[in-house]
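new request in #modeling-help
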Amino acid sequence: MNLISDSTRSHAQRAWTLVEVSVAVCLSSVIMAALMQTSLFTSRSFVAMGNYNELDQLSRNALDTMTRDIRQAKVFSPKYYRTNMMIFTNLDNGYFGYVWDPRTKVVSRLSGGFSPASGSFVNVQSNTVLTGCEYFSFRIWQRNPTNGFQFPWSSAGNPIDTKLVDVSWRCSRRVLDKFNTESVQTAKIVLRN
Amino acid sequence: MRTRLSAARRQQGNLILVALILSGIAGLTLGSYLLLAQNQNVSIYRSQGWNSSMVVAEAGIEDGLQLVNLYIGTFDPKQIYQWTNDAGGAHWDQPSAAVYHVRRTITTGVTPGTQPNTYEVWIFNTNKAAPAVYAEGTVPWTYMHASASQPMFAQAGSSVAPRSPLVRKVLVNTALQPLFVMAMAADRGIDLRGMGVRTDSFDSSDPRYSINHFYPSNNPSMTKDNGDIATNAGFLDAMNIGNAHIRGHVRTGPGPNTININSGSVGDLAWVTNKGNTGKIEAGWSATDFNVAFDPVNVPTTGWLAPDASMMNYTDTNGVKYAYRITKPDRWEISGLTGSLLVDAPTNTTVEIKIGPDDVSLAGSDAIRITPTGARVLLYMTGAHFDLTGGAIIDNQSGIAGNFFLYGSTNCIDITFAGNGNFYGGIYAPQADFTLGGGGKDTYDFVGASVTRSVTMMGHYNFHFDEDLAKTGPSKGFVPVAWNEK
């Protein structure tokens, strides 16, 4: 026995009306657009957040390495002092330094020896510490604070004055050509030796 | 009978499927977000722990330095080396002959449920004049993270995730810091208003820079350029050089225009002797970063003896009268001094004299005279005023600065030398204002070094820093000279 009547079958097999289709398409479009927008926003922020995480981690590692290096340095070389470069002498009379190239936006750690005969660095090894660095600055100060708060400025020509190195940088990356993820680090490091 | 699902029922199934997929995507996205946030959180916590472990290691270094400097203030290296006798009392163990070790736990500020920070310190005393301090700071870092495994069903919360402790290691080499490292140091102002004041240095232990241990007066080429003067003060004209010629460096505390110079000069021998440099300071020979703590004198508290009658009112073969004559190397205590004092002790001995609570007030032809036997005199001034006026002098007849030291306790607030004779010795009185006058038309030598609260130099003095004081003289104690992070 067939329990489905002809009238029911005809109703079930009947096509959508134009109005029904139009409404469905409109609603679907709105929902899809909302979904796509949400998806796009989520993806962007997701990438931005991951990017920031990575930048922050790289910056933190760079700062850890830099503070350890500078803290146990003996003295810096005034001849090579720039706001984007500092070369230090270690207790073992080896050399190391950090330099920022504003064109490539790369901060590198240099290490090696120095030849008094040629007056130049020898066996220089360069390791990239940071990339995408928009801003980088070294400033030097005397160790003893005045009035307990402010560190007096140190002359670049007199390295024995200098006991405090102030380093700041800002690294950024563009994500999907829209977001600019930034990581800012700043620290004051006292030379212990 | 055949049963069929209606179209509405099929659509409901699709909806559930779509809802599940969308929920899955949303959940996955949310989970990823949380994971990223957690990673960031972990990174920050770890970074804090990493930085904290350096602070803890530094605390260990401080602990080690405190032990090796147990006897600072005595200024005597032999006394300073005695710290090893007290290591056990400070809960240090001794794993081997020249190694001292301690492990301490920092319990202050520990969050309940977390492990405290600890440090271990080893002191390697193979070279007793330069012990090395090695410290390991351990910080058992943790971080809070979201967790659903709470006592109540579906309860959200957080729990602590322990991680391997962070350990940082520091090795610090130390050395004895000399009490006298420059010709003249002061906590407050230095005013060289006298006429023709000069400073330079020599080395009584080096025949290249001395003649029979004495200052090479007639041979400037044997002198050196370390007649440094320095003050902690950083105010306007804190150091008035005036017309003095300083063969050495000048340093003040931080501040603008801290050095005033008129017709004097500062620099090396060639610079200072060049008249074209009048009123100038050679490049690199001045700085404004001087910041030194002058520790108070630790006057020995026991073993002081009062001179008996046989040591008083002595007249020598030349008819010179002395209120006291000390011949025995010991600790002698005198309440005050208004007459001459003669120290005539055997060679290579040390005589300690404490004067106080009354003043030292000598005038006319009075003198504190030390015969040239080679005995060393340590004079502790615990009275307020140490005044030598008129023709009164400290007559260290050995001519060796290392044979006489005047230590002013915190009670000693001024030291005045009339300045009518040469002075050989070291003065360490960080609470006393030091005034050096006299000289008249004559010029005298001040051979040695001084550390006082302030300096006012009005006489005609040539100040010769004996660099041997920095090598074999009194010491402030052990200070770090090399910092290595492992």
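bot summary: Chain B is about 15% helix and 40% strand.
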